[in-house]
# Entry
Amino acid sequence: MQGIIIENISNLYRVKVRDEIYETTARGKFKKDEITPVVGDEVDITITDEKGKKAVIEKIHERHVYIKRPKLANITQIVFVVSSKEPKPDLLMLDKQLAFAEFMGINSIIVLNKTDLDQKEEFKQIEQIYSKIGYKVLLTEAKHKKGIEKLKEVLKNNVNAFSGNSGVGKSTLINGIFNRDMTQEGEISKKNKRGKNTTTAIKLYEIDNNTYIADTPGFSTFDISEIESKELYHYFKEFEQFEANCAFIGCTHIKEQDCGIKQAVETGEIDKARYERFCKIYQALKEKEERKW
# Structure
């Protein structure tokens, strides 16, 4: 029987097969082959106790996508949740995550949440920047369930991961989508305006047939060092059309003169602040690479 792993707690895996959920363990051969089943894996199972819903994982199907940390397989879309206020938008983190999604070949959706708290409506500038690049940007007020229906539409027929810093409203959005308390909602620390992590285990929630949401602790801190610094610009997709204007082959788009991307920044065709964040991410990757040697 074939199913999908929807939850992993320690060495136990909950596998959904049609309308049934089985509690499974993995065959020892996976450990021998240094393969560990992860949430999102499509697996074959053998039932050992139908009444008790117990089974054993026999085979892990080939993964289309695999994220190492947090361990997650076969997601097709990442929903990047950014808070308009409390906590303030972390666009450096967003740009890291967008670059990683481009690198992995995963579709990206940006959700600007808590727009009702942003009295100056600064979120409109963020919406404009990323919409111009080509990303789908949704505006939500999770507490008031505004924008939830539009969000549900873009989730259809995908295995979706929600990502974003603590306190941005991921769990509240998920609860709004299901119209019930699916995940424990966090509280923003009034003292420092930073979020407190509440999610402790990766879990897939099924919205309807072939549509899942992954609630993923630690997803906002995933490591993008798999991307080489010299390749980073490929994953800032608005850069591509200006690369041909660079005077030098192998231009890093950082210090060189006659750089097509830097010229596009000067003319306003590329957002200056996003380019500056690209430079910061590039530098961090470069320094990490140099420390390896």
Observations:
- Confidence is low (pLDDT under 50) at residues 184-200.
- Residues 272-292 form the longest helix (21 residues).
- The first strand starts at residue 2 and ends at 9.
- The radius of gyration is 21 Å.
